[in-house]
Amino acid sequence: MEASLGPIARKLINQIHGVKAQKVVDLPAWSEAKKRATTMAQENQPSLKAINDVGPEFAIYAYVNNWAISMMELLQDVSDLQKFVNKIVDAQEEYMPEGPPMSPLTKSFFYQWAIYDFPIGKRETMGSILLSVGRSLKMDPTFLSVLEHLVEGRLGLYVHDGAKGDGIMLRELFTGQTHLAVSSSGYHGKQGELWLTRVMPPPTPGLTRSVVVTTPYLLLNADVDAWTEYFGRTVPKTPHKDPKEAYRHLMKFGLQPNYWPEYVFEGYVNHQSDVIFLRGLPDVAESRPHSSVNA
Question: Which of 175, 183, 158, 129 is nearest to 11 (CA)?
Answer without folding.
Answer: 129
